[in-house]
Amino acid sequence: MKKILIVDDSREIRELVIATLETEEYQVFEAADGAKAIATALLERPDFIIMDVMLPGRINGIEATKIIKSNPLTKQCTVLILTGTDDSNIKEMGLDAGASDFFMKPFSPLDLLQKLEDVFGGRTPNEF
């Protein structure tokens, strides 16, 4: 069973991802801010993290990604940056922090499932 952590300050987004992914194949965890994301990643060691960029508190999604990817206990996590903007600076900062790819809001549950299949199936993910 693959472990997935969804990090978003929007309860609706987290619930959509959980409803889409919580199956026998995936165990889904959630966090509403960067600090909780780091703590959950350390505790659960997810295979995959869907990380929103804009998060409340002192640690945004880019910084949380950087912390997670620099820790030997969590550096193996694949991080997908979730963003509502097509800003190339955010994409560059996400990649520099250790993210593997991006996913644009709004998104359909089918697109999310396809993205996960691309990642877990060993194929190179396409940018959305």
Quick tags:
single chain; 128 residues; alpha/beta; Rossmann fold; five-stranded parallel beta sheet; 5 helices; 5 strands; 42% helix; 21% strand; globular; disordered C terminus
Q: Could you explain how this protein is built, in words?
A:
The structure is a single chain. The chain has a single domain (2-120), classed as Rossmann fold, CATH 3.40.50. It is globular, with a radius of gyration of 13 Å. It is built from five helices and five strands. Helices cover 42% and strands 21% of the residues. 33% of the residues are buried. The chain has a five-stranded parallel β-sheet with strand order 2-1-3-4-5, with helices on both faces. α2 runs parallel beside α3. The protein has 128 residues and is of the alpha/beta class.
The CATH class is identified as Alpha Beta
Instruction: Estimate the helix proportion, in percent.
Output: 40-55%
How are the strands of the largest sheet arranged?
A: 2-1-3-4-5
* CATH architecture grouping: 3-Layer(aba) Sandwich
Number of helices: 5
CATH topology: Rossmann fold
Spatial separation of the terminal alpha carbons: 26 Å
Instruction: Summarize the main sheet.
Output: 5 strands, parallel
Low-confidence stretches: 123-128
Percent in strands: 15-25%
**Gyration radius over CA:** 13 Å
Order of SSEs: EHEHEHEHEH
The named CATH superfamily: Response regulator
Q: How many β strands by DSSP?
A: 5
Q: Kindly report the average pLDDT value.
A: 89
